[in-house]
Amino acid sequence: MNRVLPEQWPGVAPTDRPKRTGPAPAPPVAVSVPSDAPDIVAQVLARLQPVDPALVLLFGDPGNGLGAVGAQLTKALGPDCTVVGCSSAGEIGPSGYCTDSVIALGFPADSFRAGVCMLRDQAHVPVSDWMATLRRFHADFAPRAGRSCFGILLADAQARQEDVLVATLDAAIPGVPVVGGSAARGLNFAPSCQMVAGEGRTGAAIFLLVETDFAVAEVSFAHFRPTEHRAVVTAANPHDRIIWELNAEPAAEEYARLAGLRPEALTTTEFARHPLLQRTGRRHHVRAIRAVTPDGGLQLLSGIEAGNILTLGNAVDMTRGFAEALDALPRPPVMVLGFDCILRRLALERAGMAEQMSDLLARYHVAGFNTYGEQHSGMHVNQTFVGMALMPPES
Question: Which site among 115, 272, 303, 359 is 20 to 30 Å from 351 CA-CA?
């Protein structure tokens, strides 16, 4: 096996800026530009250059390529600005859900400091090397007392390594909250792109550490409740995330029986309505079903192993609980960096509730992208909204 070691990206190491002394930190800025616009870079720079960003996040699939846009922004914004991005299955901008767009988020240097570490090939990175690199990266970054620090993980969904990546992160740098999303391109699982400083790659993962004067809080919301129907995974292929048997029966047939459906009626819509849930501690996490395999197995979007106990879930209100979760924050957020599962968005569109959800996303200043998996609290999950809320510091 080739050993491809993770690295801190050259030329975009965290800058050592003094802690700001002004009365209020400078908030981040979100920009949405059509992906086919001929002047994407000019439009983004017009909004972001005035705030002197330490970090720019790009989400989407611009017509001239994410790498080209990232390279031009890196040149224009200079070596003290970290430019990072990934392709997406959909975007979340200042007006809520959007498609065929590029979202640019600028984090002012007056209030933020950022560093980045890239895994060029998830499949060929030993866990021990990944853990050692993360610890060294965190030590070099040296978060300062009195400021908030959080992490962002952007991973290629096709590599299917998110469970290992996020668990290792949680073990290597405990106490640092990490959120993130699994990237794809569009709705057909096309190869995704992860980009740092204009270099785009497929199969990679990017981890950022961000320090800020803002207070931060993790947010998560899944619109499901567990039912009384449970099943044991009795045969599985963990590498390919396939369940062959549930309760010693063919997986698709047993799932259909538990959900009260005919096997031939299993569709993406039904998978979204009746997800499989795995309990960890006191919480249930979604293990979303991607498809039925030709031989009757269930292919998932998260890791699975024989012996796992799963519970059938039922969908509930997709909007009310979201607003309640964000209203529970100590203070209204200036921005929520959001990662929202594409399956949630598709379910909202089918239910005629996408516009209502977009209004909520705009109201709470959510910006980010639609994913094929979400990361938070040391877990890789599905059909969930996760985010990092940035709030004014306590006075």
Answer: 303
